[in-house]
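This protein record is not my work; I was only asked to verify it. The record follows directly below this note.
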Amino acid sequence: MTMEDSDALGWRSVADLVGDHPDAPVALIGAGLNERSLTPGRCDLGPKAFRAVLPRFSTYDVETGAELATRVHDAGDVPLKAVSPAEAFGPVRDAVAAQGVRGLTVLIGGNNAITRPGVHGLGLTRTGLLTLDAHFDLRDTDQGLTNGNPVQALLEDGLDGRRVSQVGLAPFANTRRAHDKATAAGISVRTARDCRARGLASVVADELDRLSALVEVIYVDFDIDVIDRGQWPASPGARPGGVSVHDFFEAARVIGAHPKVRAVDLAEYDPSLEVGDLGSLTAGRWFCELLAGFGAR
């Protein structure tokens, strides 16, 4: 056995799939937007922590016998240091639009304000939005854009609420005002209890089918605070009683496999709240599941 063949000191990792691959079917973009977060934190550290953890994941899935082989073009980071959500809109939108020829674009945040420009990057008039999130993100915009109002801002931009599905909404983490807004707009609302009763992946599959009948392409916002805080401490908005991390991974694979899903984001990951690398390892596994789903298209 040669040194090249031996796995004694290493393995083929997911990081080996990511690099300067202009013809790759998947693109990765860092979007470490941090300004105007309602709870101050360091979501700007997300892209760097995410990339750093990828060598810790092999490309082999022991549960299915499948090997990840999809190459990922790393398009770098959008420069967003000390940039407001309003100022970030154009650069993030254009970064996503520039990868439009690919089957999937993955945006690593950053706070949840990256979702609005991400949707615009696919084209507002042809896109549906699925959020996995504990919160509606329907706060008023009269005080400007924040990480608490990207969905409200999209509705004001002209996105038809019937083309929005919100999954994983948590009790005592939202307001009646936001719920009433969602209902009036025609948004499909699925609570954390719905997800426990039917299974998150099943609920997500239903919502993807619903959106597919209405739109050309789908954008998915993975606000990672949808996960139970006991399993995911690295977001300020995560609460006890959220979805399980196992269900989150299963849903990510379902989403990755759907042919109309053209862009996703991972939002509200704050590495400064890490406990024993739990956050970065969860984010890395999420990416593996997303690629496994995409590979099954």
User: Anything to note?
Assistant: The longest helix spans residues 278-295. The chain has a mean pLDDT of 95. Residues 40 and 146 are 11 Å apart (CA to CA). The longest strand covers residues 217-223.
